[in-house]
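HUMAN: Please help interpret these tokens:
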Amino acid sequence: MWTRSYSKIFDNVKRDTIWQLWTDVNNWPQWHGDLDYCKMEGPFAIGNHFMLKPKGVGPVKITLTEIEKGRKFTDCTQFFGAKMYDTHEVEETPKGLRLTNTLVVKGPLKLLWIKLVAQNVADTVPQEMDALVALAREKEKNVR
């Protein structure tokens, strides 16, 4: 099993705004800079899936496998011979809102998929997290 996790604490941002942006899968390209599109039909619910199209490669089907409303969700991408789980967590702390992203790759061909996909996903998490929070702050500012 291969795991990569990244956490950062942000101030001046609300948990509900982050959760709203996470669950609005069709608009992920607003803060996820390396996507052509992301399409989900139906509710943000365990078992539902969405199609995510990174720039320069074909679309992948991703299934929601765990949801704790307002706190975390996990999605799973199934590759030939491996699965990649991506867990997104939000937690209120005395210093601010902690966002954590954890990637796990399992399966007999995990090394191939780490090299082809997972390491790149892990490398872009910090920038995407910053972009997500910037968009959340902008939305909160426009509500005031």
Remarks:
- DSSP finds two helices and seven strands in the chain.
- The chain has one domain: 2-143.
